[in-house]
Amino acid sequence: MALCQNPSAALMSIHPEYANKILDGSKKVEFRKWMFSNVPSIVVIYSTSPVSRVVGYFAVDGIDASDPASLWCMYKEVAGIRRRDFNDYFKDAERGIAIRVGKVHKLFKPLQLEELIGSNRPPQSFRYLDSDLCSQMIASNLASA
Predict the structure, then answer these.
(1) N or C: which terminal CB in the chain sees fewer CB atoms within 10 Å?
(2) How far is CA 54 from CA 4, 12, 40, 143, in A?
(3) CB 131 within 8 A of CB 9
(4) pLDDT for residue 72
(5) Neighbouring-strand partners of residue 106
(6) DSSP assignment string, 104-132
(7) Under 8 Å CB-to-CB from 130, ≥6 apart: which residues?
(8) What is the spatial distance between Cα 140 and Cα 63, in angstroms, rounded to a whole number?
């Protein structure tokens, strides 16, 4: 599938509250403190505990890097996060990134992490995925959100 070709796909650990908001379309940006070395074309969503499953993916519509205050000003209407939680996350950070969420796809049947990467250890922040694994996941288990 084209979405899993270059430059890459990244598996990202996201708290269930925010994973659900991405899947239902109410969260249009995912904030992080770091920048990818290779910007992925898609992000595969691993919903952390208690869900502990790969639940969907989204196309990366772009990335903005700036200081946290500027990111909040740009994205507060579509952030899907409370200001207090945003400030706690970026406490003492000088820079951050906003990953703009493009087309979202929800997996018909959420996958255990081992089914996708052969391990039950979720990435601390993210992990690049092999395009063949990503293509298989999408082809075999997709229901558009």
Answers:
(1) N
(2) 16, 9, 17, 13
(3) yes
(4) 98
(5) 56, 143
(6) EEEEEEEEPHHHHHS-S---SSEEEE-HH
(7) none
(8) 29
Measured CA to CA, the distance from residue 38 to residue 66 in angstroms comes to: 18
Position 6 confidence tier, pLDDT thresholds 50, 70, 90: very low
Residue 38 and residue 128 in contact, taking contact as beta carbons nearer than 8 Å = yes
Give the bridge partners for 14, in sequence order: 47
In single-letter form, the type of residue at position 28 comes to K
DSSP state at residue 34: S
Distance (Å, whole) CA 101 – CA 111 = 21
Residue closest to 127 by CA, chosen among 1, 29, 14: 14
- Model confidence pLDDT, tens digit, residues 72-90: 999 999 999 999 999 999 9
The mean pLDDT value of the chain amounts to: 87
